[in-house]
């Protein structure tokens, strides 16, 4: 494994590191060496986790060897006091402990898997919840507080055999933690050898080099206090996947108390009174913990609180009742709830929880009256801990007191009645971070793939981050397509703002755009909406609305389902696993071209799921996911930030309410975008279907690696064309993996038409394909791209045209053709004869000083002339040679037999541009596409003089002459890769390895682009009459029907 010297530290890395990984590790080590905080963004797929682990552990190892099991450690678990003195005397225990946290257990499992790939073997432990770790036959079936209470009761009574075996196991086994392990490994130890995995992890964490834990173990004060063995002074805290850390910190310091929950607490207090009275009669005990008077007082206080909340005057249902944060103390003091009485209430609630748990048990074991005992009173205890923290009131200035009326659902005890909720919201997420500063931690490292914009993160958390990084991606530019789509197929603006989102025209336009994307994008397609409301309204509209055309009654939803099977993200968390399974099953279904997942920004799909490779080839963002401004929490947060900004020094950086509001939406977009491009060899597209993404101030808030790739496409036709070409090239190139550099120059050489014969081309085309197939097309394209651009100058960029206007055209087509004949006579030795056995790519290149007929035609003739010319020629009644005759003259036998012929790009209908959507707003006609522009009006103009000349110069002779002319236009309009595909289709037709219907479909895909409509129309001349109806379907789908 390579070793990198970074800031004087030897970093043992398991692979050859990318440049961005070296930079990332350098920033990590800088933060650790200088003892400062770091804010590091590195896109998914750049090896962020492995780089973070290796850099941190290399720095830790530079201070001294990792903790290993010693003879002294064998007695470490004989007693808690002895254990504590041992760790104090051991000099190695003074080394900084690394605490690595992430949001979920599944993310931590992935981190530990990365640790196993490295050479570092620190002493480690992993913490988890009872839900993941409990192996007790009955307790493991419970959830939440019911499970915690049952565990506490059994352990206190020493009735759990797994709990009692922990200390015995630790005395005889010293290897746990020397090798990387995860929660599943601990569970296996528990099942095979007996100790409780949960309490085993609590013992292991006391002496470690690195500890893995979920966020809440650090952010929640109660969980943090339970980590008795951690030496916080000089510790290193790492928050991975930290993009939502500010929200987690604020939520952990806030609470909402609905009256429904308060009513349940009052009932539990009454139950405690009844239980104590009954037990006193039976047991005749004077235990103060069983004094019914304590619970009677608690119940009386809760009743007063309920009444007090109900009496609050709410003048406006929308605004509610709002006061500064310190109002909570005045509000509770009327109930005699103060700092002096709060601790007594907390103790009483703890005793009540234990009492209720005991009451739910039987002497025979874990039979419960209900599905476990959930003590609602514990929520009151948590609220009191938040309000009366630290013995002071200074933190209340970061809070807001709010009472809101809300309509309850029919599922709760109020059955649709109006209820109230008391809230105390924290608007300073930095409170949790300030606690770590007071504990004396060395460094806090926040990292994620989507932290942008970084400034708001630092300001929100109220921390200084001297070390910052926004890393680029490891992928190449050709692996990503990023485009802003400001308008749909008919030109109607795409804007999901509050003013536009309910317009029928907007929802139809968005739906029609997605129909086209579903046809173009292979395999998995993700579509993200700003909210569940928007997703529901759009899908409802698409199921009821279809084309404006009277000839097609299918709905937008029907047309989406023709190409991709839909899955919709459910609101209920319990249904989400089923939705994921459904999506995976539909992706595997070979009878369709993939699946489409409709989801919501900030939802479950946008957070932490991996849609690599075929699972997510493109993501569509349908709008800016702004939170509702009328939401009380959002409104008050903005007011709080605006007030803070006014009170701050003008020279200091501040975050206003509007800036926070916009940046929260941008961060949600970045998170959704991160579902695609999951590794070095992945590729995909990111489609922004909202005109607001074209604004510079929106783009600058996107992730750093994404910004250089963003292009704005003013016309929807440009989007379809470039996106189709992107996926066609990826489908042709196959898997994108690094290969040795190969040099092969391919230049599209202009061929004189008298040297080309369509019926005679098949043998040489087969030869061409065989020779070209020796090289990877991806490497061929990469090596030849600059050569093509420099020598021919005819390849037009995706989003603009180099064709001149007809007014600037000084050469007639007749003159051009004459010059081409002279040129071919003068340079006969340079003519490529497709009837020979010489491979196409080995032909000599035209002299750069000799003007190519293709170059002249491309630079001097407007593409509309070519379109009209082809149309005119097709309608002049010339004799048509059929593809049936062509096939029979090229090979023996009739039509091809049934075989399984697949397009090189999979089964997706690439490039099937949905032109029926151009009939919106009463505009209905034979839509034409020219220069990527959609024209919804019928073209009734007569051809110009130049068009007449061009038309009269076309061959009127036998099928070979007309076939030669057609082939010339094919070579002229197609790229190298596309021409290779065309060759393959002709070869497949000759060798009878493809059905003719498949050939027709593939040809339609090749000729769908605006400047290729003439090819699409003219190819009908070579289609057998019996297959005209099938081919005409393709013409209609691409807006080329006569």
TrEMBL record:
<dbReference type="Pfam" id="PF13307">
    <property type="entry name" value="Helicase_C_2"/>
</dbReference>
<dbReference type="InterPro" id="IPR057498">
    <property type="entry name" value="Rtel1_ARCH"/>
</dbReference>
<dbReference type="InterPro" id="IPR013020">
    <property type="entry name" value="Rad3/Chl1-like"/>
</dbReference>
<dbReference type="InterPro" id="IPR006554">
    <property type="entry name" value="Helicase-like_DEXD_c2"/>
</dbReference>
<dbReference type="InterPro" id="IPR045028">
    <property type="entry name" value="DinG/Rad3-like"/>
</dbReference>
<dbReference type="GO" id="GO:0070182">
    <property type="term" value="F:DNA polymerase binding"/>
</dbReference>
<dbReference type="GO" id="GO:1904430">
    <property type="term" value="P:negative regulation of t-circle formation"/>
</dbReference>
<dbReference type="GO" id="GO:0003677">
    <property type="term" value="F:DNA binding"/>
</dbReference>
<keyword id="KW-0378">Hydrolase</keyword>
<dbReference type="GO" id="GO:0016818">
    <property type="term" value="F:hydrolase activity, acting on acid anhydrides, in phosphorus-containing anhydrides"/>
</dbReference>
<dbReference type="InterPro" id="IPR006555">
    <property type="entry name" value="ATP-dep_Helicase_C"/>
</dbReference>
<feature type="domain" description="Helicase ATP-binding">
    <location>
        <begin position="7"/>
        <end position="293"/>
    </location>
</feature>
<feature type="region of interest" description="Disordered">
    <location>
        <begin position="73"/>
        <end position="94"/>
    </location>
</feature>
<protein>
    <recommendedName>
        <fullName>Regulator of telomere elongation helicase 1 homolog</fullName>
    </recommendedName>
</protein>
<dbReference type="GO" id="GO:0005634">
    <property type="term" value="C:nucleus"/>
</dbReference>
<dbReference type="InterPro" id="IPR027417">
    <property type="entry name" value="P-loop_NTPase"/>
</dbReference>
<keyword id="KW-0539">Nucleus</keyword>
<feature type="region of interest" description="Disordered">
    <location>
        <begin position="881"/>
        <end position="901"/>
    </location>
</feature>
<dbReference type="Pfam" id="PF23109">
    <property type="entry name" value="ARCH_RTEL1"/>
</dbReference>
<keyword id="KW-0238">DNA-binding</keyword>
<feature type="region of interest" description="Disordered">
    <location>
        <begin position="929"/>
        <end position="962"/>
    </location>
</feature>
<dbReference type="GO" id="GO:0005524">
    <property type="term" value="F:ATP binding"/>
</dbReference>
<feature type="compositionally biased region" description="Polar residues">
    <location>
        <begin position="77"/>
        <end position="93"/>
    </location>
</feature>
<dbReference type="GO" id="GO:0010569">
    <property type="term" value="P:regulation of double-strand break repair via homologous recombination"/>
</dbReference>
<feature type="compositionally biased region" description="Basic and acidic residues">
    <location>
        <begin position="935"/>
        <end position="962"/>
    </location>
</feature>
<keyword id="KW-0408">Iron</keyword>
<keyword id="KW-0067">ATP-binding</keyword>
<dbReference type="GO" id="GO:0045910">
    <property type="term" value="P:negative regulation of DNA recombination"/>
</dbReference>
<keyword id="KW-0413">Isomerase</keyword>
<dbReference type="InterPro" id="IPR014013">
    <property type="entry name" value="Helic_SF1/SF2_ATP-bd_DinG/Rad3"/>
</dbReference>
<dbReference type="GO" id="GO:0046872">
    <property type="term" value="F:metal ion binding"/>
</dbReference>
<dbReference type="InterPro" id="IPR010614">
    <property type="entry name" value="RAD3-like_helicase_DEAD"/>
</dbReference>
<keyword id="KW-0234">DNA repair</keyword>
<dbReference type="Pfam" id="PF06733">
    <property type="entry name" value="DEAD_2"/>
</dbReference>
<comment type="similarity">
    <text>Belongs to the helicase family. RAD3/XPD subfamily.</text>
</comment>
<dbReference type="GO" id="GO:0003678">
    <property type="term" value="F:DNA helicase activity"/>
</dbReference>
<keyword id="KW-0411">Iron-sulfur</keyword>
<keyword id="KW-0347">Helicase</keyword>
<keyword id="KW-0479">Metal-binding</keyword>
<dbReference type="Pfam" id="PF23116">
    <property type="entry name" value="HHD_RTEL1"/>
</dbReference>
<dbReference type="GO" id="GO:0090657">
    <property type="term" value="P:telomeric loop disassembly"/>
</dbReference>
<dbReference type="GO" id="GO:0006281">
    <property type="term" value="P:DNA repair"/>
</dbReference>
């Amino acid at each position: 494994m390579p070793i990198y010297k970074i800031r004087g530290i030897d970093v043992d890395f398991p692979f050859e590191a990318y440049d961005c990984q070296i930079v990332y590790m350098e920033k990590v080590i800088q933060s650790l060496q200088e003892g400062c905080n770091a804010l590091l963004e590195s896109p998914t797929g750049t090896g962020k986790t492995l780089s973070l682990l290796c850099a941190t552990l290399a720095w830790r190892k530079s201070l001294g060897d990792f903790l290993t099991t010693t003879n002294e450690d064998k007695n470490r678990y004989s007693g808690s006091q002895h254990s504590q003195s041992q760790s104090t005397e051991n000099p190695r225990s003074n080394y900084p402990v690394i605490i690595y946290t992430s949001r979920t257990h599944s993310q931590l499992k992935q981190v530990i898997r990365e640790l196993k790939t490295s050479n570092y073997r620190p002493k480690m432990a992993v913490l988890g919840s009872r839900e993941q770790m409990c192996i007790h036959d009955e307790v493991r079936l419970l959830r939440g507080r019911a499970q915690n209470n049952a565990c506490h009761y059994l352990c206190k009574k020493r009735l759990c055999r797994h709990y009692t075996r922990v200390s015995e196991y630790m005395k005889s086994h010293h290897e746990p933690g020397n090798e990387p392990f995860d929660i599943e490994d601990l569970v296996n130890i528990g099942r095979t050898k007996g100790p409780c995995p949960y309490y085993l992890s609590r013992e292991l964490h006391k002496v470690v080099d690195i500890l893995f834990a979920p966020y809440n173990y650090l952010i929640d004060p109660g969980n943090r206090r339970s980590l008795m063995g951690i030496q916080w002074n000089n510790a290193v805290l790492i928050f991975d996947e930290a993009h939502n850390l500010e929200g987690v910190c604020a939520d952990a310091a806030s609470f909402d108390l609905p009256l429904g929950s308060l009513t349940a607490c009052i009932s539990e207090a009454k139950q405690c009174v009844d239980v104590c009275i009954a037990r006193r009669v039976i047991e005749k005990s004077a235990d103060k913990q069983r004094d019914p008077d304590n619970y009677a007082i608690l119940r009386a206080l809760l009743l007063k609180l309920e009444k007090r909340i109900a009496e609050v005057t709410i003048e406006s249902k929308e605004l509610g009742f709002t006061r500064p944060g310190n109002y909570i103390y005045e509000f509770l003091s009327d109930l005699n709830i103060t700092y002096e009485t709060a601790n007594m209430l907390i103790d009483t609630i703890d005793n009540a929880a234990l009492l209720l748990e005991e009451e739910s048990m039987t002497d025979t074991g874990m039979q419960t009256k209900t599905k476990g005992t959930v003590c609602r009173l514990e929520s009151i205890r948590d609220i009191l801990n938040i309000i009366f923290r630290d013995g002071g009131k200074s933190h209340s200035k970061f809070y807001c007191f709010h009472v809101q009326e809300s309509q309850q659902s029919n599922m709760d005890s109020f059955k649709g009645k109006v209820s109230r909720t008391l809230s105390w919201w924290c608007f300073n997420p930095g409170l949790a971070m300030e606690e770590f500063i007071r504990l004396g931690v060395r460094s806090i490292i926040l990292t994620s793939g989507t932290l942008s914009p970084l400034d708001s993160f630092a300001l929100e958390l109220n921390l200084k981050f001297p070390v910052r990084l926004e890393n680029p991606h490891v992928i190449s530019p050709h692996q990503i397509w990023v485009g802003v789509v400001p308008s749909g197929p008919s030109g109607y603006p795409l804007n999901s703002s509050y003013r536009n989102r309910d317009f029928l025209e907007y929802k139809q336009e968005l739906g029609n755009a997605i129909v086209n994307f579903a046809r173009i994008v292979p395999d998995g397609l993700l579509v993200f909406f700003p909210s569940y409301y928007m997703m529901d309204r759009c899908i409802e509209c698409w199921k009821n609305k279809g084309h404006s055309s009277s000839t097609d009654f299918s709905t937008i939803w029907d047309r989406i389902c023709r190409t991709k099977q839909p899955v919709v993200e459910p609101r209920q968390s319990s249904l989400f696993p089923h939705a994921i399974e459904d999506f995976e099953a539909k992706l595997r279904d070979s009878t369709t071209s993939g699946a489409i997942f409709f989801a919501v920004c900030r939802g479950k799909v946008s957070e932490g799921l991996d849609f690599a490779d075929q699972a997510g080839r493109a993501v569509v963002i349908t709008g800016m996911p702004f939170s509702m401004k009328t939401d009380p929490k959002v409104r008050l947060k903005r007011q709080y930030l605006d007030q803070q900004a006014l009170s701050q020094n003008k020279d200091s950086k501040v975050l206003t309410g509007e800036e926070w509001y916009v940046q929260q939406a941008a961060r949600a977009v970045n998170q959704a975008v991160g579902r695609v491009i999951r590794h070095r060899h992945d590729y995909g597209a990111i489609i922004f279907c909202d005109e607001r993404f074209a604004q510079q101030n929106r783009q600058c808030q996107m992730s750093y690696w994404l910004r250089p790739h963003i292009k704005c496409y003013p016309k929807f036709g440009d989007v379809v064309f470039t996106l189709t070409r992107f996926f066609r090239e990826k489908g042709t190139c196959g898997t994108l993996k690094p290969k040795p550099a190969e040099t092969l120059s391919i230049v599209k050489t202009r061929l004189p038409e008298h040297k080309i014969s369509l019926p005679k081309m098949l043998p040489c085309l087969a030869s061409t394909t065989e020779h070209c197939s020796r090289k990877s097309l991806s490497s061929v394209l990469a090596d030849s791209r600059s050569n093509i651009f420099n020598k021919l100058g005819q390849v037009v960029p995706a989003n603009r045209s180099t064709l001149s206007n007809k007014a600037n055209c000084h050469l007639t087509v007749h003159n051009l053709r004459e010059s081409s004949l002279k040129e071919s006579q003068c340079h006969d030795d340079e003519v490529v004869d497709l009837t020979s056995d010489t491979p196409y790519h080995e032909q000599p290149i035209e002299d750069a000083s000799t003007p190519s007929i293709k170059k002249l035609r491309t630079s001097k003739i407007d593409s509309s002339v070519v379109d009209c010319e082809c149309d005119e020629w097709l309608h002049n009644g010339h004799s048509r040679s059929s593809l049936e005759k062509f096939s029979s003259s090229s090979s023996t036998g009739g039509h091809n037999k049934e075989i399984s012929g697949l397009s090189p790009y999979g089964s997706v209908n690439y490039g099937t541009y949905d032109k029926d959507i151009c009939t919106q707003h009463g505009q209905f006609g034979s839509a034409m596409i020219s220069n990527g522009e959609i024209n919804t009006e019928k073209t009734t103009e007569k051809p110009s003089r130049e068009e007449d000349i061009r038309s009269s110069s076309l061959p009127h002779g036998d099928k070979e002459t007309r076939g030669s002319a057609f082939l010339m236009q094919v070579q002229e309009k197609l790229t190298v890769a596309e021409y290779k595909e065309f060759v393959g289709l002709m070869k497949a037709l000759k060798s009878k390895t493809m059905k003719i219907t498949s050939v027709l479909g593939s040809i339609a895909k090749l000729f769908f682009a605006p400047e290729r409509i003439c090819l699409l129309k003219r190819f009908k001349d070579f289609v057998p009459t019996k297959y005209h109806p099938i081919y005409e379907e393709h013409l209609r789908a691409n807006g080329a029907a006569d």
